[in-house]
Predict the structure of Thiamine-monophosphate kinase.
Amino acid sequence: MGEFELISHYFAAAPCAQGGEGVALGIGDDCALLDLPAGEQLAISTDTLVAGVHFPAVCDPLLLGQRALAVAVSDLAAMGATAIGFTLALTLPDVGRDWLAGFADGLGRMARRCAISLIGGDTTRGPLSITVTVFGRVPAGQALRRSGARSGDLLCVGGPLGNAAGALPLVLGEREAPGELAAPLLEHYWAPLPQLRLGAQLRGRATAALDISDGLLADCGHIAKASGVALQVNLAQVPVSAALQAFLGREAALHAALTGGDDYVLAFTAPAAALSGLAETVHVIGRVCEGQGVTLLDAQGQDITPQQRGYQHFRETP
Amino acid sequence: MGEFELISHYFAAAPCAQGGEGVALGIGDDCALLDLPAGEQLAISTDTLVAGVHFPAVCDPLLLGQRALAVAVSDLAAMGATAIGFTLALTLPDVGRDWLAGFADGLGRMARRCAISLIGGDTTRGPLSITVTVFGRVPAGQALRRSGARSGDLLCVGGPLGNAAGALPLVLGEREAPGELAAPLLEHYWAPLPQLRLGAQLRGRATAALDISDGLLADCGHIAKASGVALQVNLAQVPVSAALQAFLGREAALHAALTGGDDYVLAFTAPAAALSGLAETVHVIGRVCEGQGVTLLDAQGQDITPQQRGYQHFRETP
């Protein structure tokens, strides 16, 4: 087999290469073809992961395949979309059969968990880099935007934050931890499960939503700016996992939850009346007010918004 | 401005970032949103260009921007689709304002020529690499596939071949040529114009189609394999430009046209009766027969199919 036959062999063999609902034509022609039910819009997002920048240059390809797909699908969840398919643009320095088999396996596992199909791609030679473009469908006009938050809404997140940031020193081999602490953190880093079901539940309920990738405070800044409102975050309400707290201690765990990034958990705003019946992992962490920017409050309601340069992302500049 | 504000500044300023027909939501949220008219399917293709592999590491960013979009849009033409939008995943080693301004300008110029809008993207730090994913629409069931060629059809191409391959030594600085020879070749390399109009004309006429990117003989092999037929190419009918022939001589020009790649000209099969009224640049270059593989015939009908290893791509293996 030549290089490209080898690659197509692995990905064609992956279960995720089977066409799913909405996929009229998958891999193998000049384009893939999607069908879209009447009254629905197509949601599209693209994410690139570069070796040595977004993941360690040497890592388990199975884990990498899971993560590369998950971080992209998370954007579909953030819009309230149902996943349909994805394309994979894979740039590889060389073709190792074990690496490809592992990567395709990881990609396939996450594809099954998200009910999404590989519909096309491009393989090129070069420094290791992975670009995944995802496609979903959402009823017309019901996509969750960042721009609809209104004063009086509550601010919520879809689950504990900071696990992926906490896992980073483990991923990089800078620290070690007992297996029962390390496992849930590493799981969140390497296989964050996109909150597709919560996103779908939020259609018609949430006024604004996104998935947390830059860190809670930075991403709250994106909602505040897009909606023309201020967001107040109550530190005491920010959820952190028991594993993260045990690994880092309470203060560092909260720091990771506020600024760490890579959570791929939804953050959203909604009127209080719209929250009944949502997933139990949803936590109210603050509220929407008139004004601009993001304010962090302690348990006494004191403004403890960090001012350091490292937090500049959530201080939006014009 | 920070890194990402700088980048969004350039691409938001580019005319191609304006939403066009079918774009319900462009850059700035977690996903872009597309509308699709009833009875149409969405066509999707993705292409990656890597510095030092697909283009010289040092080159004019304006030309690179044009080329990166053109080679991707060409896949929409090959399916008979109408262009709607594209996403850009741009990985850059550093952020140079002049480079970004030039690249955005080139991207915008090609976007206007193809009537396609930038709808989203991702910018990351790393070795220079560009992944463009394009979206088009095509009436349901009318997309041009590779698999419909039938014995008795004629084999056609949308214009002269080999110009981009002929330009390569000029691009790489290995040769020089007088301006009047070099200009049309370089234009074809850096700004190949996707044959969207011809592709649309071919809906309901062509039985199979693709855009020539791997070289005529290799790509004819793809049609032959997908359709389960044999293709005969008549060397004397293969069109080459006057500029290419003057630059390389007749024999080398034909060699470039047969195997050079990067043409982004359509190749298609159709019954003779379906060819009337097509663009004047269309040339009949052979025919479809029972059997398999691609055969090259000289003016006397002798089989002169090249057997060298360099041509292996059009010798399909099971």
